[in-house]
Amino acid sequence: MTAPALFWFRQDLRLADNPALEAACRKPVLPVFLLDDEAAGTWRAGGAARWWLHRSLAALDTALRTRGAALHLARGRAVEVIPALAARIGANEVHAGLLYEPWARKRDAEVAERLRAEGGTLFLHSSALLHEPHTLRSGQGRPYAAFTPFARALFGKGEPPAPFRAPQELSGLELPGLALEALELLPSDEPAWWQGMEESWRPGEAGAQSRLARFMAEGLRGYGEGRDRPAIEGTARLSPHLRWGEVSPRQAWHAARAAGAEGDHGFLKELLWRDFSYHLLWHRPEMPEAPLARRFEAFPAVRDMRLLRRWQRGRTGFPLVDAGMRQLWQTGWMHNRVRMVASSVLVKHLLQPWQDGAAWFWDTLVDADLASNSASWQWIGGSGADASPFFRVFNPVLQGERFDPEGDYVRRWVPELADVPRRFVHRPWAMPGGPPAPYPTPLVAPEEGRRRALDAFARMRAAE
Ligand code: FAD
Prior knowledge:
The protein is mainly alpha-helical. It has 20 helices and 5 strands. Strands 3-2-1-4-5 form a 5-stranded parallel sheet. The relative contact order is 0.12. Bound molecules: flavin-adenine dinucleotide. Residues 227, 235-239, 242-243, 270-271, 273-274, 277, 336, 339-340, 343, 361, 365, 367-369, 372-373, 376-377, 380 line the site of flavin-adenine dinucleotide (FAD).
């Protein structure tokens, strides 16, 4: 009789194009998901991501059952639970997708060690990225620190391998585990802040595939112009599906090619930004906590909880930022252009530490991903790899007028401004009589905020 294998689902919650599952599924297999908050520590999934995970696990279990297996759920320390489960089913092979977060690398090394001591092996398969970070080096033999040469090198390597189909049948082992509710992923607090997420998303592989197909049919062609317009659905909205591995980046890549994306099409470049963020996280594991450009350790940010709270609640007085922060709160997602402006305002106009903004995003984004989130916050704050120069400060009014010219996005998310005429919608404080109550005046005048940010930067440089 063939010895069984244990398949450990982590951030690859799909059946198709899953190399780890492909390796495990030729044997009788026990598919396991384990919630290991202890190992993740500070980086345990935030509130919105946990909501997503709950729904995605339910979808995964349903999909597995149609193929002859069921998801075994567990909670606890992987270093104990995984070897114990393997021993219980008599498996000496454990297969999983590679992870890149520093805490996960450390934890996986411990699991591998424990399994080895008991005669087993942990096989980690590449399944989350287009290219593995440890295999890529620049011409100087170092990891890449800038996106353009990174992307050029990857486009130069040719196409990623074609994705493959889900196994038709699995020979699943039955071993009762926890009920999904016992993972306590769903929030119990009132009001039900996740209601808008329920209406906006369909977590799971089937939802990911239908989102992908829809974007390829309706969005890809106009992506170049549409991607910067937050009022329309001009981007793929695949980020939470990619985050949880419900779709693989090479499925997205090849779907785009099949739908007509040629050369270095913008959508493919965005997929490479994701890979680049992981490349940075792999080579600079301190990225989530510390500035990559060390000089920014001396940046004179002044933590002010009142300012932070106003930003979190979408009450900065800058309509584009407030619309974005409310879209985030209600749906767990924010348009990329607005993420850039909202994060820039927090770090530059309001002089708050980027880590505080990143922590809020971590808790509220359904796509919160340690690599992309910390790389993007550092990029905006000027301390990241390949960051735009600090003195380029986004003006939230001009950004609004350029990318939301009719004010439709603002009006959708900030009902107080629903009746404000177009010419005032991004500067309601300039209306005769001021902004309609209770909408606030800005926390700082845009030019004053810019000047303060540049002064802070100059002080940091003077202290070097
Ligand atoms: P599309 O434009 O359709 O792009 C396709 C895919 O490419 C995305 O799903 C995503 O996986 C990837 N991608 C696009 N832009 C970027 C980028 N700049 N960096 C890395 N990958 C990218 N993205 C996350 O997935 N998780 C995060 O936690 C996250 N935090 C961010 C924080 C800040 C301050 C900023 C400015 C950006 C952040 N992003 C993050 C990047 C980007 O905003 C989202 O990936 C994008 O908005 C997702 O929407 P989409 O799927 O419609 O993107």
